[in-house]
Amino acid sequence: MAQRITLREVAEAANVSLTAVSFYLNNRPGLSDATRARIAEAVERLGYVPRSSASGAALGFIGLVIERLPLSPFADMFYGDVIQGIETQARSLGYNVALMTVENSASLPQLFEQHNGSLAGVVILGGGDSSAEIVESVLHEGLPSVLVDTDTNLSTMHSVMPDYVQGAYQATRYLLGKGYQRIAFIQGSMKYRSLVERFHGYTCALVDAGIPIDKALVQPSISSGFPNKGYREMKALLERGVTFDVVFCVTDRTALGALDALREAHIRVPDDIALLGFDNVAQSSHTSPPLTTVDVYKREMGAIAIDILHRQIASPGGRLAVKTLTPTRLVERESA
Question: What is the average pLDDT across 252-268?
Fold first, then answer.
């Protein structure tokens, strides 16, 4: 039995994008007469036969690649909102989204093959242990692609990332302006660029204010694999015996765990020690006290990434990649 001709083979033969082929097959506007004629010629020459709608196959898939997390990405405090932004914007532009959860980059070629050439582009969400290898694997496939909530030094890879350095810088300056001088910081895993940049913002703000970095106030992550991040770190800070009047947590999830540890130690927030988080996840406004945090426009970040990817798909070319920084804002509540 002859191997089925794929959309990608048609696109390559006509020297157009996958989206252009999809638009032609679905009789959608946006293509010139010359482009339509080129696609028609390729379809006839290759003998391409569209799959019937009854087969359940979809044209114009966007692969959403994310490393496997302890929890479902849809249930994750942060990524659930980002994914919603990605899905909503993708649907509005006529794409379907295929979630590709990977253990490592070696599994990607098989995932791509399962879609039999119907992938229009790829969104890589977040960093992790295999981040560089995953990016390399996607680039090897030659697919339009964009990174979300992480970045790379490659000049060919677009990325969308909140301005974490500035957000953490402004939050630290806010705490200093409130009179706090001993600002402890609970770090996240150093494998995530997004969390490293938040720590950089904290240190830059202290240096600019003429306050030396006190290593005793910086608590590394020790909760790998534990759902209640921040709890063990907060206990470690307290057991160290150093004095501090506020704790800046690298994420809201970390702050929730830290809050549990403070309650367990009968330390009142903010009367005894203040607390600040980062991300403004939904739960942060329902803690007791409500959590002061830094808002990240999560759904907007996902939507912007799809817009960038769509432009790549519609107009393929060798343009240099762009790093898009989205803004953050401080959300003042009662914990600080």
Answer: 96
